[in-house]
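Incident review: delayed structure delivery

Summary: a single-chain prediction request sat in the queue longer than the usual turnaround. Root cause was a stuck worker, restarted by the on-call engineer. No data loss occurred. The affected request and its eventual output are reproduced below so the record is complete for anyone auditing the incident later.

Affected input:
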Amino acid sequence: MKLEKNDLPIILSNTEIPDLFFTEYFTQANGDYIKVYLYLNFISKYNKEVKLNDLSKKLALPISTLQDAIKYWENLELITKKSTGYVVNNIQEMELHKLYTPKISLSKEDIEKNSKDQYRAKAIETINTTFFQGIMTPSWYNDIDLWFKKYSFDEQVMYSLFKYCFDRSALHRNYVQTVADAWSKNNVKTYSDLESYYEKQEKLSTIKKSISSKLRLSRPLTQFEEAYIEKWTVDFNYSLDIIDIALKKTTSKANPSFDYINKIITDWNDHNLKTTTDIQNYLSSQKQKTQSIKELEKKTNYNNYQSRQYDDFESLYANTQN
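Output delivered after worker restart:
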């Protein structure tokens, strides 16, 4: 693996790391990954061939960790793979490119219009001082302008978006974008919308915990199991009281599955049952039908038995006459 950057004698050389690395990447990266990136920056100046085994020994890291780190920085475009090895990219040049590359979905006129909005500008500056210690890079300003345009968030929602990510130590673009997408898909635009969304999420979280407890699950719910619960509570708008009725029907099952529970609850929804009373009446009706069928089957079997007895007696009587 060959790394390239520049060619200076080591006695005259300094390894410079731009401040952008610390504001944009440092706080989000794994410690071992940072160790690898800094060393790659250092050795890239000498255009030397470097073997992964040697690098692994030098940094006292497993080769698998080294490979993961290289892939991590490659995905962030801080290094670029070539046929002969890797090039360590210039972070400042990357940032300038992002800043001055026109965004197709947001025109220059749109950015200028948003910039003139004093209330919005104040909100953006509050984000800067609160979550970036006043050193937010210019590309973040463009991203925020774009998100205002794309999602139609009001200023309080945009601030809340950054606070949500900051509180989870995940203030990087991909995560902010993912959260913004989720809020937008749930029709969040105003702070009132966001509060309603939070209430729904809190209710959903409570239901998930309750279901796990009732089923005595000692593991976290899988993605598919959570999707089932969201279907019952969001799509069907069923409360925990209704879901409880379905859970009780699993008591006779050794290993009740979510597929089984889902079939029960989906059947109720298909029959347009909306309340616990509707469901209890439906279950009683189903039970009565089942009982009637059993009684009918029992009676039918009894009549058949009686008929066979009569036929046998007639046959026996006929034989004795002969």
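Verification: The radius of gyration is 34 Å.
Action items: add queue-age alerting; document worker restart procedure.
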